[in-house]
């Protein structure tokens, strides 16, 4: 029964050191291209030049994550968040180690 099942599933399985495992592709079979949504064509709403500029800025593929594309203020908020997280973790470790060692 097991040999029959393996022979039917052979295209989906690969053998590693005598054991069979499911072979999953590392790269998707096709890439999905995303296009920006044009809301003005469907709803009749007008996009202001400022909104068009922001839309272009955030959709630009420059390697930055979207939460850092807003400029200097986004970088300041991101770094302050990281610093506060590190300070909180250090304070937490100090608190727990003081309880453990006491």
Automatic annotation (TrEMBL):
Q: Tell me the keywords, alphabetical order.
A: Membrane, Mitochondrion, Mitochondrion inner membrane, Transmembrane, Transmembrane helix
Compartment(s) where it occurs, according to its Swiss-Prot or TrEMBL record: Mitochondrion inner membrane
> Could you confirm whether the keyword Transmembrane appears in this record?
yes
The cross-references to Gene3D superfamilies, in alphabetical order and at most eight, read: Cytochrome c oxidase, subunit VIIa (4.10.91.10)
InterPro entries found in the cross-reference section: Cyt_c_oxidase_su7a_sf, Cytc_oxidase_su7a_met
Membrane spanning segments where?
Answer: 76-101
Q: Which SUPFAM superfamilies match?
A: Mitochondrial cytochrome c oxidase subunit VIIa (SSF81419)
Q: Which CDD domains match?
A: Cyt_c_Oxidase_VIIa (cd00928)
Q: What is its main location?
A: mitochondrion
> What protein family does this chain belong to?
Belongs to the cytochrome c oxidase VIIa family.
| Name of the protein in question | Cytochrome c oxidase subunit 7A, mitochondrial
What is the organism of origin for this protein?
Drosophila arizonae
> What is the taxonomic lineage of the source species?
Eukaryota, Metazoa, Ecdysozoa, Arthropoda, Hexapoda
**What gene is behind this protein?**
LOC108618571
